[in-house]
Amino acid sequence: MGTEDGAIQHGNVLEENEATLCVVGFFVVNAGDNTLRENVAADNDEFGFALNQAHGNWLIGNTAERNGRDGFSVFRSSGNALLENAAYGNRYGISVIGSDGNDLLRNVARANQIDGIRLVFSEGNDLVENVADENGRTGFAVVAFSKDNILRENLAHNNGSSDLYQSAVSTPNEYIENDFGLVVML
Q1: What are the CA-CA distances from residue 104 to residues 58, 82, 137, 149, 153 (Å)?
Q2: 103: closest CA among 85, 120, 119, 125?
Q3: Distance separating alpha carbons of residues 143 and 120, to the nearest angstrom
Q4: DSSP state letter for 107
Q5: Rounded Cα gap, residues 65 and 43, in angstroms
Q6: Is-contact 171 148, C-beta < 8 A?
Q7: Cβ of 141: how many Cβ atoms within 10 Å?
Q8: How far apart are the first and last CA of the chain?
């Protein structure tokens, strides 16, 4: 959604669609107030679902499987809600990069090659009741100056090197009633 000339598309609903064998499955750029519900993005070269400079969008009940990079990518985007999505077998499950004030609620990131859910250069995000297990490296990664995020009632076990990893430069963050196995905080 959005156009190459910068025109902004708002208020669209994409429901029960499938995108396979593309470069990017679903791409929302410079757009807001869109809803993507119960779509499937599988076997794409790069991303399953990508938000780029997109604000106030809703991703609900979508599935991203076996995409070359991220199942869900939130890049330089704020005020979005990712609710009850699933990311399986991607390089990264859900990546929030340079993005502030997003809500991730009851998502599942399982069996991704590297990290299940990661925050990179991101502030003020709420992650609640998400599950990140059996990922290659880390369940939840909070890195690269990510701060003032709240992780509450999340679950992570059986990840490759840690279930929660927070880098030394990523403080403060608040962790409330999570169920993590191995925690690494530098």
Answers
A1: 10, 5, 20, 11, 12
A2: 125
A3: 5
A4: -
A5: 7
A6: no
A7: 27
A8: 39
Q: What angle do CA 85, 91, 94 make, to 5 degrees?
A: 30
Give yes or no for a contact between 58 and 28, defined as CB atoms under 8 angstroms apart: no
What pTM value is reported for the model? Answer: 0.95
Six-digit token string for 97: 């990069």
Show the tokens assigned to 68. Answer: 């070359």
> pLDDT tens-digit profile of 81-105?
999 999 999 999 999 999 999 999 9
Task: Domains for the chain: give ranges and CATH numbers.
Answer: 16-185 (2.160.20.10)
Closest CA to 97 of 70, 125, 126, 121: 121
DSSP3 helix / strand / coil % (the chain, rounded to 5): 0, 50, 50
